[in-house]
Every structure is written in C-alpha cells, then in structure tokens.
Write a structure and sequence with these properties.
The protein is α+β, with helices and mostly antiparallel strands. Helices cover 59% and strands 14% of the residues. It has 10 helices and 9 strands. It has helices at 2-9, 38-58, 66-95, 100-128, 140-184, 187-205, 207-224, 234-252, 275-285, 324-342; strands at 13-14, 20-21, 231-233, 256-263, 270-272, 295-304, 307-315, 347-352, 356-364. The strands form 3 sheets. A 5-stranded mixed β-sheet has the order 4-6-7-9-8, with helices on one face. Strands 1-2 form a two-stranded antiparallel sheet. The protein has a two-stranded antiparallel sheet with strand order 3-5. The longest helix has 45 residues, at 140-184.
C-alpha cells in the first residue's frame, strides 16, 4: 500500500500547454483510477470469472454437477465484482478528495462490506428457493469468514494492481508531456540565430529590408512566447509560416522557392502551434541549405473529412549529412506533440528517396483529446 502512495505522489500535473505544475495534481490525478471506464469493468469481470473457475476446481463440490457449481460460484463472484466496480465508480469523486491512506482504507472497507452484503443476499436467495433449510444454517459464520478472508486477499492484490497501473500511466503521460515541452523549445534557438544572422547581413546593404525583417521576427516571436496556446487556427499558422519563409528568402534568395497548395480548410480548423514552421525549418536546414542550386519546397494543406492533412516535401542530397540526427529529434518532437494532443487519432508518415524528403501529417481538425 505504501508503494502505491509513493507512486501517487510522484505524479504531477501538466498544464494545458505542457507546463508542469509541481504544486497541484492532475484533474484526474486522484489515487483511485476511473472504474467507470468500460475497460476497467471488463477487466474486473474477467478476473472474477477466472477466480470462479479456480474456486470451482479447488473447493469441495457444492452439487453433483461441476458445471452447476461453476454457475453458482460465477454468479456469486460476478455480483461481488460488478457491485464493487459500480460502488467505486460512484464513490470515486468523493474518495479521491481524501488523503491517500484514508482513501485506500475507506475503499478497502467498502469492498469488504460489499462481499459481506452479497454473501447475505446469497444466503437469503438460497433459503428462498429451498437450496438451504434455514436463512442462517450452521455453517453461516464459517461461510462469511471464508468469504471475507478470500476477499481481503484478492481485493488487496487487485486494488494495488489497478491503482499502480493507473498511476504509472499518468506518470508516463506527464513525463511525455514534459519531454514534449522541452523539445518544443528547441525550435527557438535555431530560428533566433538564423533570424539574427539575416538581419545582421541586411543592416548595411539593405536597411529597409532589415527593418521589415525585424518587424516580421517580432510578430513571430510574439506567438512563440505565448505559452497559453497549444492549438491555433490553421490560417494563423499559415501566416506565421509565410513570415518565416519570407525571412529565410532574404537569406537564401533565389535558392529558396515554395509551392503552396491550401484548399478546403475551414476557419474552425486548428493545428499545433508552430508545427508547420518546424517542418519548414527542417526542409530548409536539412535540404535546401545543402544544395548549391537550392530547390523548391512543396506545401499542401487540405481537409479530409474531419481531419487536417499537412504535407511538406523538399529536395535533399542523395548522401546523408551530419544533420540528419537533428532532423530525427525534430520529428520526434512533432510525434510526441501529436501523441499528447490527439492520442492515436493522429499520424505522421515520413518518406525519403534519393531526391526528396517528405512528411505527411494527419490529425483531427477540430480539437484534440484530454488526459
């Protein structure tokens, strides 16, 4: 039980923008897992049936038919299991407000009371249908004692397993979100250094362009420093990407060309902030910059049902460069952010040939998932 509490204390809250709040707990961070979920109900029912099969084999026969015995024991076990899940589902919001030790103690006591209650109900039904001669037969106390002892052992093990697994899941999600936030910030130094170099090169020979570049960079960093947003309208992200490409065009001049295809994207469609800009930064850093003649970046953004499709393709050298590992880190960043925001509803497909490198991302266009 103490190990469960230690694991619970290790779970910290991650804010909606990925920041870790070490002083508060997750909205769903109570010690007890969500027993209302279908997965939890199914797992509990399967565990109860598995135990019913074992008890049918090891205990003395109840009737002359082993399958009849299995049916009776299964009904008894399933009543206890499903009533316990229902009770935990209803009581969970109140139990999770208690300190860890008290929450576990009340939960454990409630599960034992349910076992006793189902035992009493079973005896009453057996007496009502003349399976036993009296409501309280001579083995009444022995029946309840055995049930409570077995229930105490099984509930302790099951409760520890379900709670520990749930806390481990939350800890893993918090760690992934923290890592995604750290990786997210890695795009800023790259872009900052490139932008400052552009402005420095334009200050003497083209002061008007340098002033315009400073204004564009200020607009971009205003968005980058806004930590309150994870998802932004696609049209805003396109504007940011065009500003970024405008700055890079000043540096690379005729070596950088772009081909935009944006079609069918609604105003309500949203995408992770700065994700498109990071894709374009990768296309330039790991593609265009290595080609003496430069090349053209293809950018396609469209809607497929309720999913947004973002496709970026750029030319590359046929041989590998020393920056390929940096590109993999950036793609890991994107993959983690998509997982964090959309769960399994998003996908990223990467394809590389001798001439081109392409990334295709698909994710829900109207919001993401929550923890």
């Amino acid at each position: 039980m103490q190990s469960i509490l230690n694991l619970h204390r290790a779970t910290k809250r991650v804010g909606p923008n990925g920041d870790i709040d070490w002083g508060k707990s997750l909205p769903d961070s109570g010690l007890l897992p969500d027993f209302c979920r279908g997965e939890m109900v199914l797992n509990t029912a399967v565990l109860a049936e598995f135990l019913a099969i074992i008890f049918t084999i090891v205990i003395p026969p109840i009737t002359a038919n082993i399958f009849h015995d299995l049916l009776l024991i299964s009904l008894f076990m399933q009543w206890i299991a499903l009533l316990s899940v229902c009770a935990l589902c209803l009581a969970r919001p109140h139990l999770n407000r208690l300190p860890g030790n008290r929450a576990l103690l009340f939960t454990y006591a409630m599960l034992l009371c349910i076992t006793w209650l189902v035992g009493e109900l079973s005896l009453w039904l057996l007496a009502a249908f003349d399976y036993v001669f009296a409501y309280r037969p001579e083995w009444y106390l022995n029946f309840h004692a055995r049930n409570l002892i077995v229930s105490a052992i099984i509930n302790a093990m099951a409760l520890r397993y379900f709670v520990a697994r749930d806390q481990l899941r939350k800890t893993t999600l918090a760690t992934e979100r923290a890592r995604a936030q750290i990786l997210k910030h890695r795009i800023r130094p790259h872009f900052l250094f490139n932008s400052m170099n552009i402005i420095a090169s334009l200050t003497q020979r083209a002061p008007v362009k340098a002033e315009a570049a400073i204004e564009d960079m200020a607009d971009l960093f205003r968005l980058m420093l806004d930590e309150r947003k994870d998802l932004v309208p696609v049209q805003n992200e396109v504007k940011v990407a065009r500003k970024y490409l405008k700055l890079e065009k000043l540096r690379l001049e005729q070596r950088l060309n772009t081909n935009w295809k944006v079609s069918g994207v609604t105003r309500q469609a949203k995408t992770p902030v700065l994700m498109l800009q990071l894709l374009l930064e990768n296309a330039i850093r790991h593609g265009i910059e290595h080609l003496p003649e430069g090349g053209e970046i293809d950018i396609e953004i469209s809607m497929e049902d309720k999913n947004l499709r973002i496709f970026v393709r750029n030319p590359v050298l046929s041989e590998k460069t020393g920056r390929d590992q940096e590109r993999e880190v950036s793609l890991d960043n994107i993959r983690l952010r998509l997982k964090d925001l959309y769960g399994d509803d998003a996908s990223i497909n990467i394809e590389q040939t001798q001439q081109h490198f392409s990334v295709e991302i698909k994710h829900p266009a109207f919001g993401g998932v929550t923890l």
